[in-house]
Amino acid sequence: MLVIENLTAGYAKTAVVNDVTITLEAGTVTALLGRNGVGKTTFLRAIFGLCDIHGGRLSIDGKELPAGKAEVPARHGMTLLPDDRGVFPTLTIDENLRLAQRKSYSPPIDVRQLFPLLVERSQQPAGQLSGGQKQQVGIARAILAGERFIAIDELSQGLQPSLAQATLEALRVIASTGVGVLFVEQGPRYPLAYADRIIGMVKGHFVLDRSGEELRTDPAAVTDLLVVS
């Protein structure tokens, strides 16, 4: 369980996320929705110690995550796939995966079955891949490293729909073992189809927090958010 209390974060003196409080439950797939520039990426970066924390407190399973120490979430089995795909371009796909694999943890999903590319091009440097192919490697790395919590920024970026759907189905299987999953999207399609919980952000604040089941019967609440924000 990841607890975020009164979090204000940004860059230098500029706050992008303002006084947000939320608990992200283990075993739950949560989608974070919002238009460009509302603070979604900064929120993720704040969780993982990658931007300036102006106030608030973060903890996982009761253990505090100190501000500005990106190595601490990793030690706790938390992983972030950033919007730049988070791969090592000079290393092969196999080397990227080996570096990500967390000792003594085997995810319930075989990433090489999920993404056949990982086998077909295992010895190719990741820097030679297309954007969508790098996204597959990055998601695979996140699955291998995320023993307790996985966060993915712009999950469907560069993925063909069938791969995006397969990825979300895999993440639901992973969540069923007790791993918390948080993914960011700009559009409602995948959150409405796969998320247990959907959060909407506008101008650094959460303005929507409802179950996916509830919003599937009231999708206008999501689409309206994306239009007016």
Helix-strand sequence: EEEHEEHEHHHHEHEHEEHH
Radius of gyration: 17 Å
- CATH topology: the name is Rossmann fold
Specify the CATH homologous superfamily. P-loop containing nucleotide triphosphate hydrolases
Q: Give the tally of structural domains.
A: 1
CATH class: Alpha Beta
List unreliable stretches of 5+ residues. none
CATH architecture: 3-Layer(aba) Sandwich
**Largest sheet, if any?**
6 strands, mixed
Instruction: Report the sheet-strand fraction.
Output: 25-35%
- Which structural class is indicated by helix and strand composition? alpha/beta
Task: Please count the helical segments.
Answer: 10
Order of strands across the main sheet: 6-7-8-3-9-10
Could you report the average pLDDT, rounded to the nearest whole number? 95
Spatial separation of the terminal alpha carbons: 29 Å
Number of strands: 10
Helix content: 25-40%
Quick one: overall form?
Answer: globular
Q: What are the defining features of this structure?
A:
229 residues, globular, six-stranded mixed sheet, alpha/beta, 10 strands, Rossmann fold, four-stranded antiparallel sheet
Q: What can you see in these coordinates?
A:
Helix 3 runs parallel beside helix 6 (131-145). The protein is 34% helix and 28% strand. The protein has helices at 40-47, 71-75, 93-100, 111-114, 117-120, 131-145, 161-175, 189-194, 212-216, 220-228, and strands at residues 2-11, 14-24, 29-33, 52-60, 63-64, 78-81, 149-152, 180-185, 197-202, 205-211. It has ten helices and ten strands. The protein is α/β, with parallel strands linked by helices and 229 residues long. It has a single domain (2-83, 147-228), classed as Rossmann fold. The longest helix has 15 residues, at 131-145.
